[in-house]
Structures are given as structure tokens and as C-alpha cells.
Specification:
This protein is α+β, with helices and mostly antiparallel strands. About 50% of the residues lie in helices and about 20% in strands.
């Protein structure tokens, strides 16, 4: 029983740490929305999109911890990264250059 409590406490701390990072992102970008996606054994990816179009992501050790983190942070969570949500992302010259470089082998 003690092992379960220790794991739960560790998961709670990780969720709280992620929630602080999400809240800091939201504050820096005038608010934020997110989407949680399972990425296999690595856990879950939390994609964040700010009100200003800035974006970023975090990786949580599990989907459950990711969902706890976004809930604690109080952001709107989308079920999928659909067209309407994706349209809020603003990419700059760096991203376009990087994407073009990947296409041409750079």
C-alpha cells in the first residue's frame, strides 16, 4: 500500500509541476488552450497554443498525469488538434525555414 501512495504522490508532484509550466505559458501568451495526445510508452504530449498564436509543448509520463496538469492549470482542452484549433497557431520565419530545410534534406 505504501508503494501506491508513493507513486501517487510522485504523479501528483509531476502534474503540479506541469500545471505551473502550463500556467506560465498561458500568462506569457495572454491565455492558452491545449490538447493532450497519447504518444506511446513515452507518455502524453500536451500541445499548448497561446492567445497570441505562440505555441509549445510538454511531455508528461502518462495521459492521466497530462490531463491532471491541464485541469489544474485551468486551460481549455480540445479533444483533437483540428483545423480550427490549428489555425490559431502562428508560425514565424524560423519555423518556415526549419520546415523547408527538412523537406530539402537540411
Amino acid at each position: 500500500m505504501a508503494d501506491t501512495q508513493q507513486v501517487d504522490a510522485r504523479a501528483e508532484r509531476k502534474a503540479a509541476r506541469l500545471a505551473r509550466e502550463i500556467s506560465a505559458f498561458a500568462k506569457a501568451h495572454g491565455g492558452a488552450e491545449g490538447q493532450v495526445a497519447h504518444i506511446g510508452e513515452r507518455g502524453a504530449r500536451i500541445v499548448l497554443v497561446g492567445e497570441d498564436g505562440g505555441w509549445g509543448d510538454l511531455v508528461a509520463p502518462s495521459t492521466e498525469i497530462a490531463r491532471q496538469a491541464v485541469e489544474k492549470a485551468g486551460i481549455t482542452v480540445h479533444e483533437s488538434f483540428d483545423g480550427e484549433f490549428a489555425a490559431k497557431v502562428h508560425t514565424g520565419p524560423y519555423e518556415w525555414k526549419r520546415m523547408a530545410g527538412i523537406q530539402v534534406g537540411g
